[in-house]
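Kindly go through the entry underneath: sequence plus fold tokens. Please state briefly how this chain folds according to its tokens.
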Amino acid sequence: MEAKTAKPDRYVSFAGINGDENSRVLMEMLRRHIDDPEKTNAFWEKFKEKLNSVGEPDKTCGRCLDELFLVHSYINNIRELFETYDDRDALELLEQIEEESC
């Protein structure tokens, strides 16, 4: 009988889950789409402003935004965009982040 590799469980501990790095990578994948003038719109332009404020609380009235917060807050919009452009790698990472960190 093979031993199962234990999958990290966010409800027990975030140990072994790299939510911050995964979120940064996902934002890079997102930017490949929303930085393309053919794929962006007013919503994604506003989202880019928020993304550009990550780690800069002076730009957000004292709140310190991070990529994971933005993924959590806009997960449905992000998923829809990746589905629209059939970005399977990004959808897979988004699913992982949702399961592990959101």
Observations:
- Helices lie at 19-34, 42-52, 67-73, 75-84, 88-101.
- Residues 41-101 form one domain.
- The radius of gyration is 15 Å.
